[in-house]
Structures are given as C-alpha cells and as structure tokens.
C-alpha cells in the first residue's frame, strides 16, 4: 500500500483528502479535451504549495510595505526576468491573480469609466472581459464588438478597421477563448495605430504556443500582452501583464495598488518554475506537438462528417458545430463526460441557441499532448467523439460505458505529469 500524497491533509481533514484523491483519479482516467486545461508538472505543484504562502508582500521587489521580503523579492524578480526572457518583452508584471483581474488592470491603466473599448464579441469567440455586456467591463465601459464572417468563420480585418475608425476605442483587444485560427497581430496593430487605440493582445490560450514558437508573437506589435499562466503555458492558475517600458509604470500601478493587495507568492513561485520549463527545448517540441495533434484531430473529425468552425484549426483549439448531428452541445458534452472525455459546450458564431444550451462544443489538445499522445492517436480520439455523439443522439448509455473503458485503457499507458503513478 502506497503512502498518501498528503498525509497531513488526510490526518486533519479526511473528507477533503478523499475529494482531492478522487480528483486525481478522475484526471488520470479521463481524456481531458478542454482547451483551457492542462497538467502542471510535479515541480510546479510543489512550488505552488510552499511556505511562501505565509508571506504578505504588498508592493514590488525592493519597494515593499512589509519587512522580511529578502527571499520573496528574489522569487518575484526571478519570475519577472524569466518572463521577459521567454517572451522577449521589456517589462513584465507577474502579480495579477488571474486573467480577468489582469485585463481589469489594463482598463484601469488606460481608460476611464464610460470610455469606448473594443473586442471580439463573446458569441464569436471573444472573452467576457473584452467589453461584453454582462461583464463589469461592459457595464463600466462602452463596449463595441467585432466578429467573424458567417461564410468562413474568420475575422474580417477590413470590417474591424471600419468599426475601429468609426468608434475610436481607447482600448482594442485581440484574442479570445474560442479562436481556432492564427491571429494577425500586425494587422491589429495597424488598425489600432490608425484609430488611436491601445492594442492589447490577450494570449491566455496561446501563450505556451507563442513561448514554444508554434504561434506568432504579438510582442513586436501590441502595447500590452495579457495572459494567464496555465492553459498551454502549463503553469499555476495566475496571470501576467507584459508591455513596452513606456507603459510599465501605468500597468504596475493599476495592478497594485489599483486592484490588488499582496501577491500570492506561492503562485509566483509556480509561475517561475513554469517559465523555466517553457524555456527548455522539450517545451518547444511540446508546443509544436499540441498544434500537430490539433490539426490531426481536426482532420479526423472532418473525415467523420463533423462541422468545424472555420473548417479546422491553426492552434490548440477546435470549435465544433453539432447542428448537423442533431445533438445540442450541452447534451453532447454531458454524454462525452460519461464516456470519459471531458469537453465544454460552447456557442458557435451566429448560434441560434442560448449560451447555456448552445449548438457546439469546444475541444483542445494541450492536456492529451502533455500525457504523450501523438498525432497517430487522434483518429482514435475522433472515433470516440463520433461514437459518443451518436450515442447521445440515441440515448445509448451502454455505448458510452464501452468508450469510457477504452479511454481508461489507453490512458493507463500515458500517465499524466504531476499525478501519482499507480
């Protein structure tokens, strides 16, 4: 019998320890296809659970409001220097608690309530914090949105330019949460310059691909680059803001004291480790494998008759419209979950259905690539998805159970990073 991974937790709170153990098992035995999820390494897990959690550190290295920061300053400085080196930026702030607070700091730095801001519409693949109405950013600012073309699911940069010149937004966001194609950062920069806007590239989903050279970088073009540190970057749940030196003071002031108190030092440590890992040759291979797997999976899904928004993918993400299969996205996602395949239901561009019961599902390849699955496995994955969607249409629960057993059997040969090995 192996020792429990968290003996103190088990002794103090066996109920919570059991839930953590159950989640470890679930992550080990299921195929995680949510594109915003990944597995962190054991080193990142360890760094995120250290005694650094015991420290309050309001301020920045060398300029703290608390004493006893000798080690904390060096931890944060290490994370900052690694971020600057990895992404080639002039300034980096590693303190934002997550992606949404990071984007709020951008607003605080460059706009005032009521100003016009512009981003991709949420149903078209954008993010809530890009000025969408139900978000605080859409309540406090005047949000205008661009989308994609109905005929091909791609951004119409001429239409973006026309809208930007008509609205003259203070901030122009590019990037989103359901964009399967390469973002033309240079085109967005040209539009922003012409409209007099601050260009913010939200690369939360593709930061790891950028770090690994598998997606173009926005750094030469954007005034600010906002990103989470998990997803394809394989770090802890945190965020970073990177920018040109001319904007450093405004960004730092917006994060602290503008929106936050003390940073989460244990998360900063985990970010530092993840950035170190992302600078290694193995991570470059990983980033390219994520894209290769996504392209192979998209091709296999197309062969099985699925409708993919924009017809495929250039990155880690695939957006599927299930209208032609006669199965709503929510029904399909829940059936896939019972089959051991974890996805999320998602709106598709021009979706006639409601956001909580949309037409599509969103899938991605970061997690399965972290486990070592390759392009040769993608036809099998596509076959599982196809069989599960068909089973959902028929209400065939036994078929889902068969798929789940097949998934578990394959994954047993590909252990996930950071999880206990049975």
UniProtKB/TrEMBL annotation:
It is found in: Cytoplasm. InterPro entries: PyrdxlP-dep_Trfase, PyrdxlP-dep_Trfase_major, PyrdxlP-dep_Trfase_small, Ser_HO-MeTrfase, Ser_HO-MeTrfase-like, Ser_HO-MeTrfase_PLP_BS, SHMT-like_dom. The modification N6-(pyridoxal phosphate)lysine is found at residue 231. The record marks 230 as: Plays an important role in substrate specificity. Signal peptide: none annotated. Its main location: cytoplasm. It catalyses: (6R)-5,10-methylene-5,6,7,8-tetrahydrofolate + glycine + H2O = (6S)-5,6,7,8-tetrahydrofolate + L-serine. Pfam families: SHMT (PF00464). The keyword Nucleotide-binding does not apply. Belongs to the SHMT family. NCBIfam families: PRK00011.1 (NF000586). This is Serine hydroxymethyltransferase. It comes from Streptomyces polychromogenes. The lineage of its organism: Bacteria, Bacillati, Actinomycetota, Actinomycetes, Kitasatosporales. The gene is glyA.
